[in-house]
């Protein structure tokens, strides 16, 4: 477990890459919104603003689609981008407070049913 202590600087950023995720989850706006709400709630960040989630299409190619979203809170934000054609999701979490990066990685990996994931922490 990496317990990220943000006292050294302004905050820490956790970047998670999820691979081989089911397309259905990657394109489900309700599911993505639920991830925002549940993750913030589990971390005790209850004052988070409503997530803004939307489907995007890249150019005229309907195969290059996904869902993007963000949610903000005082001292924290969560960003999700999915790429359905590649079965991938990329998640960024920033907080000025202390957080358990292993918990966040496990939650996201399980929620997206990723067969493979990796992460980096930047302080």
Automatic annotation (TrEMBL):
SUPFAM superfamilies referenced in this protein's UniProt entry, alphabetically: S-adenosylmethionine decarboxylase
GO-annotated cellular components: cytosol
Cofactor(s) required, per the database record: pyruvate
UniProt keyword terms in alphabetical order: Autocatalytic cleavage, Decarboxylase, Lyase, Polyamine biosynthesis, Pyruvate, S-adenosyl-L-methionine, Schiff base, Spermidine biosynthesis, Zymogen
Gene3D superfamilies: S-adenosylmethionine decarboxylase
Keyword Ribonucleoprotein: no
Gene Ontology annotations of biological process type: spermidine biosynthetic process
Presence of keyword Nucleotide-binding: no
Domain of life: Bacteria
A GO term, aspect molecular function: adenosylmethionine decarboxylase activity
Pfam families per the UniProt record, alphabetical: AdoMet_dc (PF02675)
Protein name from the UniProt record: S-adenosylmethionine decarboxylase proenzyme
């Amino acid at each position: 477990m990496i317990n990220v202590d943000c006292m050294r600087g302004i905050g820490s950023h956790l970047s998670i890459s999820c691979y081989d995720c089911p397309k259905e989850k990657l394109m489900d706006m309700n599911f993505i919104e639920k991830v925002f709400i549940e993750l913030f709630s589990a971390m005790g960040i209850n004052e988070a603003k409503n997530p803004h989630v939307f489907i995007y299409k890249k150019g005229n190619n309907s195969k290059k689609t996904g869902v993007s979203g963000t949610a903000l809170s005082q001292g924290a934000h969560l960003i999700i981008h999915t790429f359905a054609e590649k079965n991938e999701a990329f998640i960024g979490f920033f907080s000025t407070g202390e957080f358990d990066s292993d918990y966040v990685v496990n939650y996201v990996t399980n929620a997206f049913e990723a067969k493979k994931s990796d992460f980096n922490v930047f302080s």
